[in-house]
Records
---
Amino acid sequence: MAVGADHAGYALKEAVKKSLQELAVEVIDVGTFSVESVDYPDYAAQVALRVARGACERGLLICGTGIGMAIAANKVPGARAALCYNTETARLSRAHNEANILVLGGRMTSAAEAKEIIKVWLATPFEGGRHQTRLNKISALEKGFGAASST
Ligand code: RB5
């Protein structure tokens, strides 16, 4: 799993890294490595590109709210970044959206909540079926056929 955070997500990233290791998840930490102010799109890009290119199976991104990281990561074709604030949204983001990047808000979510969210997110399989049809339409949007197919 590729893991990245900005300064507002740094503390939560460090806190959850240990539990990822306990879950036997191999972690590639792309930074940031301190609370010094940085720009979240730089880390979103590093994680999303690794996931979209298949270098890493999953990604985890953390900024203050999670919003900026999600917006930035979802600009990378193939990235499906889901901002989750509880275990139910984490479960649904896997079951229905096959999210390959989990986004958390470091100023919104405690370390204890984050650990539960991550556990559920990693354990939930994609349901496929009608949800696959919808993912195919997202892929079409990425290829620029979205407008044509909806008319
Ligand atoms: C940084 O102050 C903050 O704007 C950032 O971490 C994130 O919340 C953006 O969406």
---
Amino acid sequence: MNAPLKQHLIDPEICIRCNTCEETCPEDAITHDNNNYVVDATKCNFCMDCIQPCPTGSIDNWRIVAQAYSIDDQYSWNELPKQAELASGAEGEAVDAEVLALIDAAHTGAGGKSVAPASAAKPAINLYNRDAAAVATVTGNYRLTHDESDVDVHHVILDFADQPFPVLEGQSIGIVPPGLDADGKPHRIRLYSIASPRHGERPNTNNLALTVKREPNGVCSNYICDLKKGDKVQVTGPFGATFLMPNDPAANIIMICTGTGSAPFRGFTEWRRRAMPGASGRMMLFFGARRPQDLPYFGPLQKVPESLLRKHFAYSRVPGEKKVYVQDLLRREEAAVSGLLASAATHIYVCGLKGMEQGVDAALDDICRGSELRWHELRSQMRAEGRYHVETY
Ligand code: A2P
């Protein structure tokens, strides 16, 4: 009997087929066909070089197997096989612990592995890839930040006409920037969160919206922000199976974001407003920006009634005023937040700057300390129940 092996695998449901892992692997262990990116178990030496550059985390999957899955097995998958039960034995346990250590090392954020909310709709994933991309037409491109702002954020609407492109709030799509990079290779696909609800930017249209910030020298962000009405865009996806909205109208949703991290929360709010106007669950938004002029959707957000969405804005660079971050507002709203944290119907979503993660975590810890709750235990429980989600970059 062979000792169990640890095998590195790529999750086909999350992979955006951007080729980054294949380019990065020093062992040439990663390859692909039209369906999937796969890892050759005879070549992979667990150097982990591919883990960090992967934009989706799909690369970070491991199984303990009695016999390695072949490349052909992996090409045929639509989803990863579950971890099979192995005969217990010292080797198996030792390998398992080693894999867990590797996985832990690759996960630095407070988010960790995520689980979809129990009541979320089942998402469609990976319908289009680079070799067979959907072609969307730009039907709108509007600047979202004030004319005086140096922060250039755009609301871009993409229409899919008769191509099926089903999405859920919280999912992302890939945009294929045209042209080649300095090495003559096609540009990497970039991922953007969908900012509209599942049934379209306008109800019952086959379109969606993105919230995109122009980055200095950003290949894809400049491409998107400069798009004109009528332009055609190559789109992959949809992606994302966990950062999804609960369908349960009794679910309370606490949303914490900076800048363009607000995109999925626009989708969440619009879906609640349109599909569940009488929902009993509460929605709270904590939104950080430099100044009101730099806050995407500032105007439209003012019109969203407080009965639907409790809004708390944190501004960090208003002249003459103290710097305020989202975590400061969480502390300020301690009573309301701890009341919601005590409920098993409450979900937390964090989206935006990576730097915010630690501050938000510390604020929630402080808030819990002021009540009977233990944040670290509660966080693990919420994560396991699909009620705690972090997406930072
Ligand atoms: P700051 O003014 O200190 O950079 P950006 O406009 O760069 O996308 O940032 C959005 C908002 O997030 C800004 O108000 C920014 O503040 C704030 N921010 C930056 N770092 C953190 C952090 N560690 N925690 C919370 N908010 C942060």
---
Amino acid sequence: MKKQEDLTREQSEAPEGGLSRRRFMGAAAIAGVAGATGLGSAVMSREAFAAAAEEARNKFVIHPGELDEYYGFWSGGHQGEVRVLGVPSMRELMRIPVFNVDSATGWGLTNESKDVLGRDKTYLNGDCHHPHISMTDGRYDGKYLFINDKANTRVARIRLDIMKTDKITHIPNVQAIHGLRLQKVPKTNYVFCNAEFVIPQPNDGSEYSLEKSYTMFNALDAETMEVAWQVIVDGNLDNTDADYTGKYAASTCYNSEKAVDLAGTMRNDRDWVVVFNVERIEAAVKAGKFKTIGDSKVPVVDGRHGSDLTRYIPVPKNPHGLNTSPDGKYFVANGKLSPTVSIIAIDKLDDLFDDKIGERDPVVGEPELGLGPLHTTYDGRGNAYTTLFIDSQVCKWNIADAIKHYNGEKVNYIRQKLDVHYQPGHNHASLTESRDADGKWLVVLSKFSKDRFLPVGPLHPENDQLIDISGEEMKLVHDGPTYAEPHDCILVRRDQIKTKKIWERNDPFFASAVEQAKKDGVTLEADNKVIRDGNKVRVYMTSVAPQYGMTEFKVKEGDEVTVYVSNQDTIEDVSHGFCMVNHGVSMEISPQQTSSVTFTAGKPGVYWYYCNWFCHALHMEMGGRMIVEKA
Ligand code: RUQ
Ligand code: CUA
Ligand code: CA
């Protein structure tokens, strides 16, 4: 191991990594493989090496008919959805439309989805980055998944029992929700989220000056999805995380300069981590020490320098990810333009807020890891894994040793550097955001795939790599191409998620259909009826494979037609669809679900509707006709 240490020192002293990094890599890889196979420092035989590599490669294989150990929830980036994968197989299991329009399920087309997406402000795009699962006492409780929309300043919630988006909130007074994390303890009462961009206040054209511009940290009530409060900050806000006491949340700021150009954002050697004192903020709101902005009723408190609600901890330079260690001891801020990460001791924050220590005193370690540290994740055994964007590596390092090194002890805190392909953004270890961090798998979301897959034109897929971290040595076991752009993912043990196999009749997801049926005197599970209400026509029909309860209905040209389909099948997996030809209408109706869609009847004539989710040997025959008469 002495040799490795020497090389590590050389590496951290070398200005750009470069040659000495590569030498270090080679030595570390050989030492690691030898160690893991119990051969000590002896050189492995070619056969032993091949066998070890083969074993590592097969570990992620889930044979046909077998189930994965973990659910993985992936953000769909600017594609706007959430994807569900099985880990370690990396097989895609489902897609959950959120901010996007989805032709298969009718998300963005059905009334149920429009109720969630909102009818006053409608967007067809979204940009989701950070999927996070609700917690009770620092453990995933499997109830909800929350995700941000940077593009249109929203936060969405997915009900994990049905894996559908059930609430979307537009955050007022700010622009571009980026970092999002959840309160972990005592449970997820708040969804914390950062608005990234600094804007004038009020932003109504009466004001354009930078002096009167700021951004805010936001807390949503996780149950109501209403914004509970907003905190004005200095600089901008990037990523965030919460602690394991329920008292603190912290966010990185890369633009302490409040610059509006690239060069300007890099002017300061240090930006900061801003720490939010949740108790003090709640008390301020309760005491009425807040203002409101425009027609928003959300309490806004001032957390700029000098406030007792926040503290600003200087860290180098344009920091990005902010990750809480699963033992609850540290926030780690990732330096991005600095080769370092900053370890912030959470147990020093009380003293910081009481002004008993200096602003940099909570920083108890600042290990140098390599070029472009973006995000850190943990194995629950005291090690951290940081992505190095510029080096295209993951660096495994030991937190305790990094702290010792900071205190002047001569220890090597770097355990291994592994090449990934290429330019990694987030990485995420299994259960890492909870007390249960189990250190089995590490997913690395590489932004570039370059030569790793068959070429598909100028637009390349990204490359999500799976790394086995259960042993001393990180081992790359799988490449998975993904479509734009999974910023982040979360891995959850499969027993932590409990889904329904069929819908419950009268699920709140389609409450408005149930309500309307009641008003119309219609029993959704039995009736096939057409109800005319002026030029509005409501068509209620059932479906049982392979038939709709109604094979013909009549409307007039220009009528506003709403079709409600209630699936009476009770057998798992027998979903139907409803597609009205030449009307832009398509939706999913799973067992015991009611779905509805509203459209304007086209020119007089006959229009077929048909089932577009394969449900039966006679699925092709499942259809009917809408007769449109002259008005
Ligand atoms: S961010 S690549 Cu949107 Cu989570 Cu860091
Ligand atoms: Cu019903 Cu296909
Ligand atoms: Ca900066």
---
Amino acid sequence: MEDYGINPQMMQNIERVMFTPQQIQTRVEELGNRISRDYAGKSLVLVGVLRGVIFFMVDLMRSIDIPLEVDFMSVSSYSPESRDMGLVRMVKDLEISITGQHVLFVEDIIDTGLTLHYLLRTLKTRQPASIEVCVLFNKDKRRLIDMPIKYKGFDIPDYYVVGYGLDYREKFRNLPFLGILKADVLQNGID
Ligand code: 5GP
């Protein structure tokens, strides 16, 4: 397996690379071009949830060539069980007003859809002119709530993936590719 010059200590926790940095970059640019065309002549606000979305947001912004604003929220789960039920608490709200604005909700990964459902519901109460979803990695195997996703990067199978901003216990976000975490890391922790 190509190691992309990554330190072996991190690489030994990775089962395989699902998408290379080049594959991700190409797809993100395609999404950015579509978004630029669709929102031409409008003002756009990109909204993301920290911290997993950081790589995607930066690359996507660079690929969009219309005027835009960007802002972030941060959520936290009350407990792992409550996260599974989509009960999240907003710990950092947006700083800009989205009322009357065209909002694009940018997400790194959607699994059950519960987190996104909760956040969209909250944002809609602020009466944006429109609100659409852009997700890079879509795992729909465990989807509990049907989500209208206008812009989608990749459909992926139900593995725990890390890299390109995505973490396992806050680690591995800095891997430049999307990789499948080894099953024994999920069971026994990081080597
Ligand atoms: P959902 O509410 O859609 O089930 O969960 C969404 C959140 O779960 C994502 O924003 C992400 O934080 C986390 N998540 C779900 N699947 C994965 C995965 O395969 N890898 C990582 N790193 N996080 C995931």
